[in-house]
Amino acid sequence: MRLGTVAGKVWASAKDPQLNGLRLAVLQPVDEQGASLGSPLVAVDPLGTREGDLVAWVTGAEATFLGPGKQIPSDVTIVSLIDRLDQRASP
Amino acid sequence: MILGKVVAQVVSTVKHEAYQKRTVLVVRPVSPDGVTRKGAIVAVDTVGARENDMVLVASEGRAAMEILGYSHRIPIRSVIIGIVDRITRSNEEQTT
Predict the structure, then answer these.
(1) What is the pLDDT of residues A2-13, one digit of tens each?
(2) Rounded to an integer, what distance in angstroms lies between the CA atom of residue B27 and that of residue B5?
(3) Does residue B90 form part of some domain?
(4) Domain harbouring B27, CATH code
(5) In a domain, A74, yes or no
(6) How many domains does one find in chain A?
(7) How far apart are CA A16 and CA B55, in angstroms?
(8) Residue B94, domain member (yes or no)
């Protein structure tokens, strides 16, 4: 899994019916300091995040497993809305 | 698996149920001599790793499912499966 910040929302009226009812978010991968890593992605957002939120997200096959017997056609899915990162003072 | 260093602990309230009651850590990839590489991995801890520990991270969903004791697939890919005590390497003359 990776860290990211939610940088926007995506609306798509015409999409695979299995994605109906799921929000889509623009996701900027970041490191633990908040520095951007690479290009933004579009993620399925089952948690209802807001712009600016720090989240954890997962890619690949694991992005399709929403629950027992519940699979979605996604390759990037937000799995955790992060309240904060606990770190010791940076060296 | 990759080598990494634990740099932070994730505190999260709203999350997928597979993440409930789990320790989730942020791991920075490192080279075998401990030099930090670019990137940040979020991984579920299974071994009691703490900040600054060098750890082994497995990033494969099927392995995560089995380690965490599920009989169905879950949206967890990266799992900390070991704390590294020591790495010995054969000499550099091998590679140069």
Answers:
(1) 999 999 999 999
(2) 5
(3) no
(4) 2.40.50.220
(5) yes
(6) 1
(7) 40
(8) no
Please identify which residue in the block is written with the tokens 């091998």.
B94
Question: How far is residue A30's CA from residue A2's CA, in Å, rounded to a whole number?
Answer: 8
| Chain B residues in contact with A87 (beta carbon < 8 A) | 7-9, 26, 51
Domain that holds residue A10: 2-82
Residue B76: exposure state from Cβ atoms within 10 A (0-12, 13-18, ≥19): buried
Q: How far is A7 from chain B (nearest CA, A)?
A: 18
Instruction: Identify the contact set of chain A against chain B, taking CB-CB distances under 8 A.
Output: 1-3, 30-32, 37, 46-48, 56, 58-63, 65-69, 77, 79-88
Interface confidence, given as ipTM, is 0.87
Residues of the domain holding B12: 2-85
Answer whether residue A91 is part of any domain: no
pLDDT one-digit tens code per residue, A16-38:
999 999 999 999 999 999 999 99
